Structures are given as C-alpha cells and as structure tokens.
Amino acid sequence: MKFLLAALNAKYIHSNPGIYSLKAYTQAWLKEPELSDGSLQIEIGEYTINNQIDEILSDIYRRKPDAVGFSCYIWNISYILELVRDLPKVLPDVEIWLGGPEVSYDAARILEEEPNVFGIMMGEGEETFKKVIRCYLNRQRGREDWDRYTFPETEGTAIRGKDGRPVVNPLKTGVDLNTIPFLYQDMDGFENRIVYYESSRGCPFSCSYCLSSVDKSVRFRDTDLVLKELEFFLQKRVPQVKFVDRTFNCRRDHSFRIWEYLIEHDNGVTNFHFEISADLLNQDELQLMSRMRPGLIQLEIGVQSTNENTIREIRRSMDLSILRKNVEIINSYGTIHQHLDLIAGLPFEDYDSFRRSFNQVYDMKPEQLQLGFLKVLKGSYMSQKADDYEIRYKEKPPYEVLSTRWLTYGEVLKLKRLEEMLEVYGNSGQFQATMEEFCREFNTPFDMFEALAEYYDKQELSKVSHSRMARYEILERFISHRIPKRQSYYRDLLVYDLYLRENLKSRPDFSADQEPYKDQIKAFFADEAVSRRFLNEGYEGFEARQLIKMAHVEVFHDGRAVLFDYKKRDALSRNAAVHELGIWRR
C-alpha cells in the first residue's frame, strides 16, 4: 500500500515541513517490530503552483499511489481542487485526503461539495495521520476487528459515515513536539531552498485575523534538542533556516539560549529568520543581539497598525512605544535585517489612519516594510465579525479584503498601487540613496509613494512588465518632471544606486558623460594595481586592465569621483563598498 503526501508550494525555493513531519512521525512508529514488514510506503511529492496541472497529474499517475493526501492553504487550494476532480479519472481507485488550515475549519462542507474527497485530516496532523495509516494497515491485513478501526471513529478526521453524511471528529489534544523526529537527516533535495524549522507550536496571543489564535496554548520542543538540531544546519552550512514559530521570543529562556548558541557556533554563512514580538525584548536580549555577526539573524516583526483603537479591536497585545524603541536600538547595530509588517483593511483603520500607521512604521527605518491586505480566514475570529465590520472580501482564496466600514474599494485600490511602488522602489533596496533624498520633497513617505503610484497610473505603466533599468528611467522622468531644478542631482543619485548593486554593462542615458575622465580613470587603476590603497582583499594578482573590469569609478555631474568595490559588500544590503576619491576636474 502506498500513501503519497503531496504539497503544492508557492515557489520552488519553498518546501512544506508539514508533510515531512507527518512522514517522519509515522515512519518512526512503523519501525516497531510488528509493523515493520514494509507493506506500507509513504512517499513525498512536492510541486509548485507554477507547474502545469497536467505535469502534476501525470507525476502522481506514474507513482501509482493507493491514497493521496494534499496539504491545503489559501495559495494552493484552487489548484488542489482541480486535481481532486481529475485524479480519479486516471486513478479510479485512489482515495483522496485533504489536510491543512484551508480545509480544517469547514470540513463538512468540503465533503458535501467534493464527492471525490475520501476524508479530511483537521488541525495538527501527526497523530491523526498515524491513526489513518493504522486503519489502512488493518484493512490491508484483513483484521477481524476492522470495524473497530473504521475511519469515522478516528480523532482529527472528517469522513462520510455509513449514511453518506459527514462525520466530524475534532482533534482534542496536540502532539508532543519532542516526539517528532528531526525532519532533515540529510540535505538532499533541499539545495538552494529555504529550510523551515519549528521549535514551538501555537501562539500566546489572540489576534483576531490569525488562525494561530484559535489554539492559545504554546508548546515547545526541548531546547537542548533544538540546539542539537541547529548544529546539523550549521555543520551543513545551510544558507538560510527559517523558524516557523509564530512568536519565537514568547518564552525568554528558550529564545535566549538559541540566540546565544548561534553566536557561539556561528559558521559565518547560515542566516536564521525569526518572527518575534519586538516589544517583548529585554535589555539582555538586545545586548546579545549587539554581538551578532552581520546577517546572522533577520527579524520579522508584526506591527499591523499603530492605531490604538484598531490594535484593541483585533485583540492584539503590543506596546508600540517599546516596539519602536527596540527596533531603533537594533537598527543602531547595523547588523540585523528587520522586516516590519502592516495590514490594510483592519477595523477602525480608514485611509488617513493607515497613512499615519504607514508613516510611523516607515520612520522606524526597517530594511523592509511589508504592506499586506487583510485576509478573512475561515475559522478566525475576524470571519465571525466580518458582518459587524461590514467587511467585503473575495469569495475565493485568499479571501482578501475589498472594502470595510472604514475603507472603500477605491481606497483599497489606491493602496494596492502604493504597495507596488513600495515593493519596487522601497523594499527592493535598489533605490536607497535616491528615495531617502526624494522623500524630503514630500510631507511624508506615504505621500511620496502615493504620488509615484498616481504617476504610474496616469502613464499606464502598471500594466507593463519593466526591466530594472526601466524602473530607474521611469523614476528619473517622474523626478525631473516634478523637480526640474534638481534634475542633475537626482540623476547622480540614481546612477549611484545603480552602481551600488552591480558593475553595469550598459549605462543609462541620463548618466554623466565619462569621456572627459577616461584618462584619469585609467591612471587611477594603473596606480591602484601597484599601491592597493583601496582594492586589496580579493584583488591580489590582478593587473590594471583586469581591475577596471572588476571595480568601477564613476564621476558625477558635480565632478565627485566614487569607487565601487564589488568584492566587499554590505552583509545586509549586499551593496558594494564605496570609496570617495574627491573632486576630479575635466
């Protein structure tokens, strides 16, 4: 008997730790002597939503499973249901199971609407999947007490009873995290992919928009066990490990020991991502962070709103003043990437209120400010309050907000366009110097991105896919139109930002003419090949003609000469090191 656990991830670099956990947990149980005859196989099938449905269908067909379990989320449920409707046409005897947050809270409805679905595993899946596999084993072995193990009696499942109606048996207790085997016995198949790791499950907070608030209990994997497993990642020099803990630092002794261990055993390569509540950090933790290598960790911090009425209404626990102070302290270290989140469409947050929230968070100077839109998830408290808040949201996943009592659909569209500008010209980090200066031309950062979004809209630029160089050219036109007197100054800033990232093969039309400085640039690299005043580490043994291709000197409109060193890059921004060479005369 073969059971295929299938995941449709959003991108290739992602993986699905859930199905790996189900397999590891159940296979550990199957190793028991009375079960280890090899009569049951559990396989993993990972795909992406970018794969053609026919490709996925044909791969599952070639594997010939007896049962398939799909891991369901808001980003993949429509693809999975398409597979559910077609799979029995090519594998008539296959039994299809669904699991995951997108099907756990309305399992009965799905069973009624999708006749091809055999059953649904609700909530945490490890124990439930083990019990389902036990049922399959008993069926396979023709146990006389088979009726006692019928699926409708399995806790954590929803399945059709003898009368054809859904029988729902909710999960009563969660699994002990220490009983789940380590998911990564080797790194085969995870090359160039994000590795996910779980050291706790659940969340102590009750945010109304989040499914983690449904189960307020928090369970931890033993910290000693966690440290042992992190050692494996460090020895393998994994590029990034992303902790999926909902609030990593909610238990201070746990988080502190892990961060301390990472400092002591840092391999100089691996980056660790944590989702935290910044207002919970104390002085000892902040002091610990000050010792971290640049790029050792990155932090995702959910602010969501700075409107006190909104924070209160969504049941969020947050001290904004402490959060702001701690974010500022971490910023001062210059070694930790901070990613701050905002959600548009929350109750009591109108357009002007969101504008204030945006500006206050932007002023905290995170490396990234993610502007998300409320998703009214099944099973969340927000879904129960949707009518009270007059929330209108999309019928199909991801159930994104269209309007609320406080925010019109037109305003949501404006924020959508602003979000695109934020991603391109803010979060990309490719326009840092330009945008920092350009922001001073406006009352607030929000106004700057809003004006840029309106320009894109009027010029019908949002409907076109743009290259990186095209984005610079569009911004140059917008700035020149808005501030013609400072055209040369901003052109220099744009060229500066361009060369910070890469040694360009082709130059933008608005860049300063370098021909008058051609001989000076050659002379500089000839001298540098001998003196090594600036280009030393990584440039050993190279001659002037090679150095001139490896680094770049740019002379701007005002005669300021700058050397861009691409062998030395900032650990957070990945920008080239910069050396000011003074004013050069023609």
Molecular structure report:
Helix 8 links the parallel strand 12 and strand 13 (297-304). The strands form 5 sheets. Strands 2-1-3-4-5-6-7 form a 7-stranded mixed β-sheet, sandwiched between helices. Strands 8-11-12-13-14-15 form a 6-stranded parallel β-sheet. A 3-stranded antiparallel β-sheet has the order 18-19-20. The longest helix is centred in the last third of the chain and has 19 residues, at 409-427. The protein has helices at residues 17-30, 53-63, 77-90, 107-113, 126-140, 223-236, 252-264, 283-289, 308-313, 320-333, 351-362, 381-385, 409-427, 432-438, 445-458, 468-482, 487-501, 518-531, 544-550, and strands at residues 2-9, 41-48, 67-71, 95-99, 117-121, 157-160, 166-169, 195-197, 200-201, 219-220, 240-243, 271-276, 297-304, 337-344, 368-373, 392-393, 401-403, 552-555, 560-569, 576-583. Helix 16 runs antiparallel to helix 17. The protein folds into 4 domains: 2-169, Response regulator (Rossmann fold); 184-407, pyruvate-formate lyase- activating enzyme (Alpha-Beta Horseshoe), CATH 3.80.30.20; 418-503, no CATH class; 512-583, no CATH class. It has 586 residues and is an alpha/beta fold.
